[in-house]
Design goal:
The protein is built from eight helices and seven strands. With 219 residues, the chain is α/β, with parallel strands linked by helices. It has one domain: P-loop containing nucleotide triphosphate hydrolases (Rossmann fold). It has a seven-stranded parallel β-sheet, with helices on both faces. β6, α7 and β7 form a beta-alpha-beta unit. The radius of gyration is 16 Å and the shape is globular. The mean pLDDT is 96. The chain binds guanosine-5'-diphosphate (GDP) and magnesium ion.
């Protein structure tokens, strides 16, 4: 118990330093969290393809093993650094500090951090981000916000992905949003399909609003 507290305190200290570092450079850092396979990398691929001419973006990819997601992001056209956590189930603030030293995200850019896929541990580890974006796909069941409330309570935006599959699955979007609101009344929602592009405009609006606030005229 004591060890766990010390680790979290140490992480919070480093996260606060990261936050200052991002603020000093007008960088909007977003922490993307979800179960494995919800579509984090797909969302980033399409976002980079659509926006990279107007919105400078860099990416830190977190997975236990492989460079697969980093390869996908590089192919989409953004500078990217892969962090492999080995047996670890989440990124921590120290990993982000070291990754930024190498990646050097430019002043006034958006730094997308794709966390390791799970709805539990990444909720506990602040990375110094400005906002957490939780992604849930319609194949996962609409009760997940009630089962994993810590993650939904910590998030600022909830992306409901794979809406193209709604006719084929038993997923009540209204019920999912209501369940998430129960744990976090301030949570915002965007419904989209990263692979077909449906609904992406609302996500881009949210992104532009937040990047304008943070990155200002540096973009
Ligand atoms: N039908 C459908 N499939 C999707 C969508 N977004 C992602 N996928 C698929 O879901 C799988 C996992 O996506 P990925 O982006 O790797 O998820 P991640 O593990 O969260 O990064 C892949 O096969 C994607 O093609 C979507 O909007 N609709
Ligand atoms: Mg991924």
């Amino acid at each position: 118990m004591k060890v766990e507290q010390d680790i979290l305190q140490q992480n919070d200290l480093l996260a606060a330093r990261n936050r200052g570092w991002f603020e000093g450079r007008s960088i909007l850092a977003l922490n993307l969290v979800s179960s494995p396979g919800s579509g984090k990398t797909s969302l980033l691929e399409r976002t980079i393809t659509d926006l990279h001419d107007t919105l400078p973006m860099t990416v830190i990819e977190g997975d236990q093993q492989t460079l697969r997601d980093a390869d996908r992001i590089a192919a989409a056209g953004a500078p990217v650094l892969q962090v492999n956590t080995g047996k670890g189930c989440h990124l921590d603030a120290g990993m982000i500090k070291r990754a930024c030293e190498e990646l050097q995200p430019p002043q006034g850019s958006v730094l997308m951090i794709e966390n390791v896929g799970n709805l539990v541990c990444p909720a506990l580890f602040d990375l110094g981000e400005a906002a957490k974006v939780v992604i849930i796909s319609v194949t996962e069941g609409d009760d997940k916000p009630l089962k994993y409330p810590t993650m939904f309570a910590a998030a600022d935006l909830c992306v409901i992905n794979k809406i193209d599959l709604l006719p084929h699955v038993n997923f009540d979007v209204e019920a999912c949003e209501a369940a998430a609101r129960q744990v976090n009344p301030k949570l915002e929602f965007v419904r989209l399909a990263a692979t077909t592009g449906e609904g992406m405009e609302l996500w881009y609006r949210w992104l532009r609003q937040h990047s304008a606030n943070t990155c200002g005229d540096k973009v």
